[in-house]
Amino acid sequence: MKTIVIANNKGGVGKTTVASQIAFYLGRAGYSVIAVDLDGQRNLTSAMGGARVVGNALQMLESGEAPSFSVVPGEVVLIEGDRDVPVSSDDTVLQGTVAALDGLAGADFCIMDTPPTFSALVYGALLTADFMLSPIELKRFSLDGVEGVLKAFVQVQEINEGIQFLGLLPSRFDAVKKNERETLLAVAESYSNLLVPHAIRNRVGYEAAEAEGIPVFEVPTASGKEAAAEFGAFFDWFIDAVEKED
User: Fold this and answer.
1) Which of 31, 188, 216, 219 has the fewest CB atoms within 10 Å, measured from its CB?
2) Is 199 left (phi over 0), alpha (psi -120 to 50) or beta?
3) How far apart are CA 202 and CA 104, in angstroms?
4) What is the 3-state secondary structure (H, E, C) of the chain?
5) Confidence band of 175 (pLDDT split at 50, 70, 90)
């Protein structure tokens, strides 16, 4: 099973949009998928309202054990979020997270959405992961956190030597705004080898998909179709990136 953690210590950068749509697109491609909501805000749980719930994040972390379930090809199942999921630097939380997430199995992919902080919970998730993907907003104050993202990855890699950094994914990008276009160019210059060659734009189609708990490719509007084509192109890149590591 390939495990991908979606992480950034900044909030509002589109982590849930990316996590939910990756899970949905994987399911459509015939893969079996476990989506894990580790954020106390439970945004992924809301964004995947139609998925079969097979566990609760808090119960899993407190017990240090993964729930027992099966998942068939093309199915996306959900470990739902819990508002009481701990966000701390406690070693007990770290150990419980690693133990629980290490026990997850039985699917082709596991996609984890995380809270906007590099807490023990997020470090624990990264210690069990094969890949880390970091959505970023193209605003100056949001880019201040990029160095924190890279520092966290380096720290995790010292222990989890096999983890791969998929890259920085421009998210909620507004191509109409000159400052965001200029920031994208600046990021490309500074992090050329780390920048994902796709961008997720700020489209109503994504908002509609999350509000209804459905894949963006099921949103019938023009914006939904544009978003589906855009995310589909990113997804093709994503599959190539994770499969070339086999």
Assistant:
1) 188
2) beta
3) 33
4) CEEEEECCCCCCCCHHHHHHHHHHHHHHCCCCEEEEECCCCCHHHHHCCCCEEEEEHHHHHHHCCCCCCCCCCCCEEEEECCCCCCCCCCHHHHHHHHHHHHCCCCCCEEEEECCCCCCHHHHHHHHCCCEEEEEECCCHHHHCCHHHHHHHHHHHHCCCCCCEEEEEEEEEECCCCHHHHHHHHHHHHHCCCCECCCCEECCHHHHHHHHHCCCHHHCCCHHHHHHHHHHHHHHHHHHHHHHCCC
5) low
Read off the pLDDT of residues 19-71 as tens digits, 9 standing for 90 and up. Answer: 999 999 999 999 999 999 999 999 999 999 889 999 999 999 999 999 999 99
Q: Which residues contact 122 (CB under 8 A, 6 or more apart)?
A: 5, 7, 38, 114, 115, 152
> What is the model's pTM?
0.93
Q: How far apart are CA 224 and CA 213, in angstroms?
A: 13
CA angle 110, 112, 115 (to 5 degrees): 175
- If one compares 110 and 148, the residue with the highest pLDDT of the two is 110
Q: Which residue in the block uniquely carries the two structure tokens 């994914």? A: 169
